[in-house]
Each structure stands twice: as structure tokens, then as C-alpha cells.
Specification:
heterodimer, A: alpha+beta, Rossmann fold, five-stranded antiparallel sheet, 9 helices, B: mainly alpha, MetI-like fold, 2 domains, globular
Chain lengths: 325, 283
């Protein structure tokens, strides 16, 4: 196991950033730390990198106790949200920095920098200054710089957070492909569940300083451990005593299934191939339901229709938490 | 030249790619005109007048004036002291700025304000302060450097203190911490990070501060006249020398000394700029 974090606690003044966090991050995988802002995921990443010191607890990297190692000695690559470029150095110099610190021979450095710039598709920009690059290019340069020192783990703190949606999506795909080539153990922090589900092999959901669940994207989506994980990973609605996804509700115009709940369609919006309904049930719930357009047409659904709702067989269902409405 | 001729000449210049292109519109042209008149009236014409006055007596008179033993000693003292004070400021300035920006301590805001005192204080008051502290036989510190060369050094140091600090401080505040963290995670020690990442970013500010500090040192008068005693060959600086030339009705001699100072200041500013470019480019 590549990174082993146990019993981590961290407070900033009165604010509890991490509360007894235990996580194991597997070697060679792409792991996402997912959670809302201020939930402690960045703090965890920074503690792994040695940029922040935990109050208690230990960090092992590749079997070595790194708890008291300074950042310089941990051999981790770190990529920052706002790129953290060395403004006065060219792209090539930025990438070479870690190797120069390690006093590698000049020709070896030049060769490796060439190789890395090719990897991140920045070869033609080697002699530019970072200020002449776009945000996406700067982040790719930062990634090459972090990879140059052949880190045992690569840590990315909201790496695409400062980029616009299109570039974000491109870089996300590109990171996935890059990881398939390079295979370095990678951990990235994100608050975007789509990004995590799409890119990561494994996701660690962190909220209010605690680990809520660890699992593959499928596991998290299909078997969420609790209401929080479920609602964070996708849209959730409440029917009777349970939380479930809007597309996991069976909708009929005549009651035929046991335990179905009667309601009235109060709102109907068509978005492409799907139809989104808000149904006011006789129990007083406002339930979101998603059905296909064909289904809606076949049932002649319109605002004011009386319908019966049942959780679909095989639906992901979580008992509803009292606090969540 | 008629306007048609101008129009014919213009297009030939446009294909030139490199170099700044003329971006003046009618209103910005007016702005430039006003700026130039202002600058000329306040700076260029008086400076030219000084040089012209210096040239009045011919080259030989000029040379004799500035190589006269008393004047030469004053120039040497002034330039040498201004240079050493600047060297001290280049080290101390960033250090003080660092403390002000990066550290949190009690009384910081007071210190912040105090840094500017040498700016704000009338220089003669500064001179008086220095005299009572360092120039009295029964000085509370037991230090008496009145009429000694260190008095000049001390006075220069006092009045030039804020320059580098105030130039470096805003730049240091703008530096992103994650850049230093990035360097650390790449294996750079604190010292290496400072030398290769922080210092190059501060260099332009340090250079600008150093230039100001040197210029102020060379021109200083008020703060040192009391403490230094203005002894010829010992503690007499050029500004005092210029004043005494004027008092002796020798305007040409005063202008000659002024011209030398002008040339030296220009040389130092250019030199600092060259050094700054070198350091910034080294990375």
C-alpha cells in the first residue's frame, strides 16, 4: 500500500479540519479525495505532502514513516490549484528545477525535460515564460515539473479548479490517459463529483473532517454508505421513508404495485430525452421523478395528472436522515 | 514637409514588426505633450542649465574645480559613503520588509509606521536627533562621533532606511506562498528557495530601492550638517561644498560639482539596472 494515513487529527484554532482520519491509498492507482469545500480534503493532501503538520496521527509513504519528514524529503510531487509557477523561469527551467536541486548531470536534465515536455505537449513552449501560457498549459507544465523528480506519489490539489469548463474536461480526460501511461500513485482533490466518478479508480469521500466512505465509483454510486454520500454523488429525492435517485422511481397512472404512494404532478419539464416531474404526494412530500419522454407520452402525463409512485426494484435506497429534508 | 508627404512616408513604417508601435491618439498625444512640458520645465531644462553653467568656464576650469583637493575629497567621501550605505540597505531593507510581511508580533503596526519616520521628518530635525544621541559628550549611549566620518555614514543610513524596505514590502506581500511550497516539495531547502525563487522576484524592487537610496545619500544635507561638522578633507560632503561655492559667489564651481554628481548618479542607476537584469535572467 502506497500511502497509509492513520489517526490523523488537525485543528485550525477551534475549527476541526480532520477528525481521526484513517485512509489507505493503493499503489499505482488514481484516487480522488471528494467532498464539499472546507471538508478537510485539501488539508489531508497537504499533510501527506508535508506542507502541513498534523496535530496527531501518522503518515506512511511506501512503507516509510513520513510523519516527521519535511516536505523536501518526502519525494512527492505536488500540483497546486493556482499552478504555483516560477514566474521568472522559462517553462524548461521550471520543469528542470527539481532535477537541478538534485544536482543531476546537465545532459541528463536536458534529456528528461525534453521527454516530459513532450509528455505534456509543451515542447514548442520550452523557452517561453509561464505568463505566456494559458491556464491549462501552465497546469500541464506544473504537472511535468512535479513528475520530473520521479515522485513516489503525485498529489494534485483541485488541479483543474481554476480552469473553465471546457479545458477542465479536456484536462481531466488527459490526466486519466496520462496516468494510464505513467502509473504513478496519484491522489487528487476535487469537489466535483462528476470529475471524481469519471477519472478515479477509487474515491474517498470526506466531509466535515471525517471519511464518509471509500470505494470505487460504482460502489459509491450504487451502494452509498449514508445519505451524505448518496446526495453528494448525484441527485436525490425522498419517497416515503427513504432517499433515492429520481430515475429510480416507478411511475404509474393506476395503482398496481404494492406500497405505491398516490400523488399529483405539479410540474413537468422536458429536457432532451428525459422528462422531470415534481409530484406532490398525499403524504405531503414533493418528490422529483425522472422518466423517459416515451414513457411520459405513453402515460399521457401532464400537470395535474394523478400518479402512483414506487421505488423501482434494484434501486439504490438509503434510509432517510431526520435532518435532511 | 507637406501633409501629403507625411502620408506617403507613413505606410512605409507600418510593416516594421518589432519595437513599440506608435499608439498615440489625439487625446493621448495631448497627454504626452503636457507630460513632456511638465517634465522639461521641472527636470530637463534645470539639469541642462546646470551642465551649461558648468561648461561656462571651459573644460579646464571645470577640471580644475573638481580635481581641486578639497572638492575631490568631498566627492570621494559622498560617493563612497552613499555606496556603502546603499550596500547596507540592500541587505537590511529586505530583512526588515521580510519581518514586516511574514511575521506576526506585538507592536508590528507601530513598527510599520515608524519605518516611515525618516521620510516624514524634516531632515534638520533628524540631524538634531542624531546630534543629541550620537554627538554629545554626555550622550545617553556613550557614543560621540560628532565631527567624525561615521557621522556622515550614520546620517545617510538614517534618511535612506525606508527606501528599500518600502520598495520590497509590497512585492513580498504579493508573492504566493504556494510557489515556495512547490519549491519545497521539489526538494529545495529554505535557502535554495530564497536564492532561486524569492530573491529573483525581489531583485527589481531591491534595485529600485537601492537607486533611490544612493540618490538620496548623495544629495543629503540637512541631517548631517549638525553632526558632521563639515570639516574640509574630513567630513565635508558635496552638498555642503556646493553651498559654500554659491556663498563665495562661484556659481560655475557649484555647477561643476553638481554636474559630476549628476553623472555619477546616472551611472549608478544604469549599473543597478544592468545588475538587476542579469540577476533576474539567471533564474
Amino acid at each position: 500500500m502506497s500511502i497509509e494515513v492513520s489517526g490523523l487529527n488537525k485543528k485550525f484554532g477551534d475549527f476541526v479540519a480532520l477528525d481521526d482520519v484513517n485512509v489507505t491509498i493503493p499503489t499505482g492507482q488514481l484516487t480522488a479525495l471528494l467532498g464539499p469545500s472546507g471538508g478537510g480534503k485539501s488539508t489531508l493532501l497537504r499533510i501527506i505532502a508535508g506542507l502541513e503538520k498534523a496535530d496527531t496521527g501518522t503518515v506512511d509513504i511506501e512503507g516509510v514513516d513520513a510523519t516527521n519528514l519535511p516536505a523536501q524529503k518526502r519525494n512527492v510531487g505536488f500540483v497546486f490549484q493556482h499552478y504555483a509557477v516560477f514566474k521568472h523561469m522559462t517553462v524548461a527551467k521550471n520543469v528542470a528545477f527539481g532535477l537541478e536541486i538534485r544536482k543531476r548531470p546537465k545532459d541528463e536534465i536536458a534529456h528528461r525535460v525534453d521527454e516530459l515536455l513532450k509528455l505534456v505537449h509543451l515542447s514548442q513552449f520550452a523557452h517561453r515564460l509561464p505568463s505566456q501560457l494559458s491556464g491549462g498549459q501552465r497546469q500541464r507544465m506544473a504537472l511535468a515539473r512535479a513528475l520530473a523528480v520521479e515522485p513516489s506519489v503525485l498529489l494534485l490539489d483541485e488541479p483543474f479548479g481554476a480552469l473553465d469548463a471546457k479545458v477542465r474536461k479536456e484536462l481531466r480526460d488527459w490526466l486519466r490517459r496520462l496516468h494510464d501511461d505513467v502509473h504513478v500513485t496519484t491522489v487528487f482533490v476535487t469537489h466535483d463529483q462528476e470529475e471524481a466518478l469519471e477519472v478515479a479508480d477509487e474515491i474517498v469521500v470526506i466531509n466535515e473532517g471525517r471519511v464518509e466512505q471509500v470505494g470505487t465509483p460504482d460502489q459509491l454510486y450504487d451502494e452509498p454508505a449514508n445519505d451524505f454520500v448518496m446526495s453528494f454523488l448525484g441527485e436525490v429525492t425522498h419517497l416515503g421513508g427513504v432517499s433515492l435517485r429520481p430515475h429510480d422511481i416507478e411511475l404509474e397512472v393506476a395503482p398496481s404495485l404494492a406500497g405505491s404512494v398516490e400523488g399529483t404532478v405539479s410540474r413537468l419539464v422536458r429536457i432532451g430525452v428525459e422528462v422531470r416531474l415534481t409530484v406532490l404526494t398525499v403524504d405531503g412530500d414533493a418528490v422529483s421523478v425522472v422518466v423517459t419522454r416515451a414513457h411520459a407520452r405513453a402515460q399521457r402525463l401532464e400537470e395535474g395528472s394523478t400518479v402512483w409512485l414506487t421505488p423501482a426494484t434494484g434501486a439504490t435506497v438509503v434510509p432517510r436522515m431526520a435532518a435532511v429534508v | 514637409m507637406t501633409s501629403t508627404e507625411i502620408a506617403a512616408v507613413r505606410p512605409a513604417r507600418t510593416p516594421r514588426r518589432s519595437g513599440p508601435r506608435n499608439t498615440l491618439t489625439r487625446s493621448s498625444g495631448l497627454g504626452l505633450g503636457i507630460a513632456m512640458i511638465w517634465f522639461s520645465a521641472l527636470v530637463l531644462i534645470p539639469l541642462a542649465a546646470v551642465v551649461v553653467t558648468a561648461a561656462d568656464g571651459g573644460w579646464q576650469a571645470f577640471w580644475n574645480t573638481i580635481t581641486g583637493p578639497q572638492t575631490a575629497a568631498a566627492i570621494r567621501l559622498t560617493v563612497f559613503t552613499a555606496l556603502s550605505v546603499t550596500a547596507v540597505n540592500v541587505v537590511m531593507g529586505p530583512l526588515i520588509a521580510w519581518v514586516l510581511v511574514r511575521d506576526r508580533f506585538w507592536g508590528k503596526s507601530v513598527l510599520e509606521v515608524m519605518i516611515d519616520i525618516p521620510f516624514a521628518l524634516p531632515t534638520i530635525v533628524a540631524g538634531l536627533v542624531l546630534l543629541s544621541l550620537y554627538g554629545d559628550a554626555d550622550s545617553p549611549l556613550g557614543i560621540d562621533i560628532a565631527n567624525e566620518r561615521p557621522a556622515v555614514f550614520l546620517a545617510f543610513l538614517f534618511v535612506t532606511l525606508p527606501f528599500v524596505v518600502r520598495m520590497v514590502q509590497p512585492v513580498l506581500e504579493e508573492l504566493e506562498l504556494d510557489v515556495e511550497e512547490a519549491a519545497a516539495s521539489l526538494g529545495a531547502s529554505r535557502f535554495t528557495t530564497f536564492r532561486r525563487i524569492i530573491l529573483p522576484s525581489l531583485t527589481p524592487a531591491i534595485t529600485a530601492g537601492a537607486a533611490l537610496s544612493f540618490a538620496r545619500g548623495v544629495s543629503e544635507y540637512g541631517s548631517l550638517v549638525l553632526l558632521s561638522g563639515n570639516l574640509p578633507f574630513k567630513t565635508e560632503v558635496t552638498s555642503v561644498r556646493i553651498l559654500s561655492s554659491i556663498e563665495n559667489d562661484n556659481v560655475v564651481a557649484a555647477a561643476s560639482v553638481a554636474t559630476v554628481l549628476l553623472a555619477i548618479s546616472l551611472a549608478v542607476i544604469v549599473l543597478l539596472d544592468v545588475i538587476q537584469r542579469r540577476v533576474a535572467a539567471r533564474g
